[in-house]
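Module 6 notes. Inverse folding takes a fixed backbone as the condition and produces residue identities as the prediction. Think of it as a translation problem where the source language is geometry and the target language is the twenty amino acids. Below is one complete input and output pair. Work through it position by position during the lab.
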């Protein structure tokens, strides 16, 4: 996954895996009415990224930075204002609703609160069967057998098939949501904070399930989270978002161990260090809240909160530049040496 033309091979393979998902300059603006008249919320502001088959891209950033909006654009649950989303070689942003419906089996989204997306009056088995019926994926018997199999895959005893969503715990509901998402044999799952609402012990169970499914079913993930510590463990690559833009993208370990963007550095410094592998980091307390995506600052959007900010940061918007380790960062003064090339996207 990279906005640059420098593909990173998926671990263990000699040649890079093919691209499965690509966002090209995705913009999502929401017009809103305020007491001062009409305004525009610049929720996603020109994001380009690439995800290779079999890879997990983690997306992190503070609340309100546009992660969910971007996730929804990537599976066209909402329409983009500008830009394209290419899934498996086809632009899904410009296709008709009818075409999109048939392509939707390729990509599914799982949500933080699966309860909101589960029909409370539908039993577990019927919940998993329903998308297969919608997409006409076999005979009644085949659909039933596959739904039972999926319930088993996500860890349910057959007796759970007749239960309603309210009879499940939070973690169980998330597993049911995952079984439902898998019903249409997607290749890509966009998981929007799938474990944030769960107890820590249950979080590990759901994360392990997602990891097993990725291995067994050759899935590709975009995993959205607040928590860089969680993302670091499960993502091959990480994209850090700030005010609707990607400010740093790169392989998980170098980004986690040697952040290049001052915002990534600040996010990482807030994680308590519990293992010896990672150097102790001084806690950087960011001044002020995330600025409003309605009146974004000019220049670098992070400059008003950045401890390294200089005059150019306030006047000139930094573009993504390539670092010597293949990472990309949008900063005038990256904390890791820059290569000589500047990316133009
Ligand atoms: N339908 C909408 N209309 C107007 N503004 C919206 C809409 N949806 C999202 N926004 C705004 O867009 C910005 C990005 O929201 P989004 O939900 O994508 O952030 P997020 O990074 O997912 O946050 P969180 O971590 O809290 O889930 C926020 O300022 C939000 O208020
Ligand atoms: Mg969100």
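Target side of the pair, the amino acids:
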């Amino acid at each position: 996954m990279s906005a640059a033309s420098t593909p990173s091979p998926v671990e263990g393979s000699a040649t890079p895996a093919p691209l499965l998902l690509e966002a090209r300059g995705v913009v999502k603006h929401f017009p809103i009415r305020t007491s001062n008249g009409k305004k525009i919320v610049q929720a996603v502001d020109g994001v380009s990224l690439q995800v290779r088959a079999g890879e997990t891209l983690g997306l992190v950033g503070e609340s309100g930075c546009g992660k969910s909006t971007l996730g929804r654009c990537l599976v066209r649950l909402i329409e983009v204002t500008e830009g394209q989303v290419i899934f498996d070689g086809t632009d899904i942003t410009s296709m008709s609703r009818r075409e999109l419906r048939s392509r939707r089996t390729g990509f599914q989204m799982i949500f933080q609160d699966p309860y909101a997306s589960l029909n409370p009056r539908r039993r577990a088995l019927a919940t998993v069967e329903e998308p297969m019926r919608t997409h006409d994926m076999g005979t009644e018997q085949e659909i039933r057998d596959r739904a039972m199999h999926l319930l088993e895959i996500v860890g349910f005893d057959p007796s759970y098939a007749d239960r309603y969503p309210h009879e499940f715990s939070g973690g169980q509901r998330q597993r049911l949501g995952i079984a439902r998402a898998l019903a249409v044999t997607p290749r890509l799952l966009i998981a929007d904070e799938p474990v944030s609402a769960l107890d820590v012990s249950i979080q590990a169970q759901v994360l392990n399930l997602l990891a097993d499914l990725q291995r067994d079913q050759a899935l590709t993930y975009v995993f959205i989270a607040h928590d860089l510590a969680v993302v670091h463990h499960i993502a091959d690559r990480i994209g850090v978002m700030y005010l609707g833009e990607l400010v740093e993208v790169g392989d998980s370990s170098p980004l986690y161990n040697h952040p290049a963007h001052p915002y990534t550095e600040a996010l990482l410094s807030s994680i308590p260090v519990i293992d010896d592998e990672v150097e102790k980091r001084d806690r950087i307390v960011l001044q002020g809240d995330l600025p409003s995506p309605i009146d974004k600052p000019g220049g670098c959007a992070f400059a008003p909160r950045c401890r390294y900010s200089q005059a150019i940061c306030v006047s000139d918007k930094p573009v993504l530049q390539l670092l010597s380790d293949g990472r990309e960062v949008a900063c005038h003064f990256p904390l890791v040496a820059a290569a000589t090339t500047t990316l133009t996207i």
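Reference fact for the lab report: The pocket of adenosine-5'-triphosphate (ligand 1) is lined by residues 30, 32, 41, 43, 61, 63-69, 226, 293 (CB under 6 Å).
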